[in-house]
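Please fill in the sequence for the structure shown.

STRUCTURE ENCODING:
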């Protein structure tokens, strides 16, 4: 099988199982992997936060709290006071994307390699951006914002409603899929040592970086919407 055939096969997400209702509801592998990631994160959250106390916290509690504070600081530093209420959501998205992007290390197809996943995440973020704008400016103020700073910008501002989610989803999908393509090319040329070394970059560093970039851009959009 040549590289083009491998890439075509990778774009075709296999069906994991079929729910026997009517003609059958096919559940693809991306959905199953996403459910597993959410379940694992939920269980870890219950385990790691068990027995938290206000006074004299243990090492486990201090570690968890330091990670949460670091994530909050990394995101909230780019946001105004009005937008701080959305930091917990963005932390959750960054954690999910971080795990989803690096899961390829375990030879599991990342959910973000499926365009439908990145489209759904982008739509969720853009809907949240518009809701944030409506909550802060009310409906009339939100509608008026499309004609700012001058009325001639109205078509461009409306066009942004479609450009922003497209930019978010294609950037995330493109970078994750491009990393897969590069790794496949490297494996064909140098099949032993180099792929293992590059895996540390493409599957871990680049995956975590793309998670942060996605959340960073979303935070900028939210900040812009509430100002």
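FILLED IN BY: designer on duty
SEQUENCE:
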């Amino acid at each position: 099988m040549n590289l083009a055939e491998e890439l075509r096969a990778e774009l075709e997400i296999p069906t994991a199982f079929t729910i026997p209702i009517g003609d059958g509801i096919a559940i693809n592998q991306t959905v199953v992997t996403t459910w597993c990631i959410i379940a694992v994160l939920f269980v870890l959250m219950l385990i790691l936060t068990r027995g938290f106390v206000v006074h004299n916290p243990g090492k486990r509690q201090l570690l968890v709290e330091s990670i949460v504070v670091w994530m909050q600081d990394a995101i909230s530093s780019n946001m105004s006071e009005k937008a701080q209420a959305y930091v917990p959501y963005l932390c959750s998205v960054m954690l999910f994307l971080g795990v989803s992007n690096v899961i390829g290390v375990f030879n599991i197809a990342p959910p973000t390699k499926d365009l439908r996943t990145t489209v759904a995440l982008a739509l969720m973020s853009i809907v949240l951006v518009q809701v944030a704008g409506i909550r802060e400016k009310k409906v009339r103020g939100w509608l008026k914002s499309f004609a700012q700073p001058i009325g001639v910008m109205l078509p461009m501002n409306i066009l942004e409603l479609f450009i922003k989610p497209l930019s978010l989803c294609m950037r995330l999908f493109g970078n994750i899929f491009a990393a897969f393509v590069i790794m496949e090319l490297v494996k064909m040329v140098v099949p032993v040592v180099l792929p293992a070394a590059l895996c540390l970059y493409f599957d871990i560093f680049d995956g975590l970086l793309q998670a942060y970039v996605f959340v960073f851009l979303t935070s900028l959009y939210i900040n812009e919407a509430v100002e």
